Amino acid sequence: MRYFIHLAYNGENYHGWQNQPNSVSVQEVIETALSNILGSKTPITGAGRTDAGVHARSMYAHFDLETPLSNETDSLSAETLTERLNAYLPNDIVVFSIKQVPDDMHARFSAKSRTYKYYVTTEKDPFECMYRMRVKPSVDFNKMNEACKYLFEYVDFTSFSKLHTDVKTNNCHITEAHWEQTSPIHWEFTITADRFLRNMVRAIVGTLLDVGSGKLTVEQFAEVIEKKNRCVAGMSVPAKGLVLEKVEY
Questions:
Q1: Using CA of residue 44, residue 47, residue 52, residue 53, what is the dihedral sign?
Q2: Closest by alpha carbon to 243, among 53, 116, 93, 131?
Q3: With left for phi above 0 and alpha for psi between -120 and 50, is residue 247 left, alpha or beta?
Q4: Which tens digits make up the pLDDT trace of 60-112?
Q5: What per-residue confidence (pLDDT) applies to 168?
Q6: Which are the catalytic amino acids?
Q7: Alpha-carbon gap, residue 212 to 135, rounded angstroms
Q8: 200-212 and 141-148 are packed helices; what angle lies between their axes, rounded to 10 degrees?
């Protein structure tokens, strides 16, 4: 029987989602909790592999059981397992629900799209500094939104991918990309695609900020994509401002 876990986490204290040999990951912490509660080793598979320090407001993972969870209130039901996991897990990870799904549903490969947001502030903000990158007030968000339109015209985003990854293709189909002002000093970048490459969103944001600061023109942003070379793109912005907001199935 396959089950989907709907969860969220603050990634500050973790070396990303995926298990690492010498660092603590979100996946490892959840697997340990789940295995201890169920009494047997229970691996989980996530919808994506967020990098170290990246957060998730809405994430999914699946696990398999030989026998289904009970529907009885006095046994281990999905609701009871959710409660026990939340009691076991640290405060920076929360499980919203656990639901049985068809056996062929896959947390990663069945996902139709993923939406990330990157948060910035144009002024010093002591209440948001842990979750937003500070940028200069002079950054031109209108120019960055002009450059965003080029993201819809290409599918090969090698220029924004971390080097030496094990993926078979660097093709992604972006369906949403824009900056929006949410307060006098706060802006957020939203991007949706069928899949993302490692470090892709942070590299795109860094290159867009080069456009906003005048280091690149809007047309040169398109040239960066066309060159398919990570070395010509901008810096990767800090992980603290990046959040996986939504996964659609």
A1: negative
A2: 116
A3: beta
A4: 999 999 988 987 655 789 999 999 999 999 999 999 999 999 999 999 999 99
A5: 84
A6: 51
A7: 10
A8: 130
User: Which residue's structure tokens are 């298990």?
Assistant: 19
DSSP code, position 171 = B
Provide, rounded to the nearest whole percent, the portion of the chain with pLDDT above 70.
Answer: 97
pLDDT in the model for residue 57: 98
CA gap 247, 115 in Å, rounded: 6
Which residues of the chain carry a pLDDT beneath 70?
Answer: 72-74, 164-165
Alpha-carbon gap, residue 198 to 48, rounded angstroms? 10
Nearest-angstrom CA–CA distance, 138 and 113: 33
> Could you give the CA distance from residue 110 to residue 140 in angstroms, rounded to a whole number?
37
Closest CA to 202 of 154, 162, 168: 162
Which structure tokens are listed for 8?
């969220």
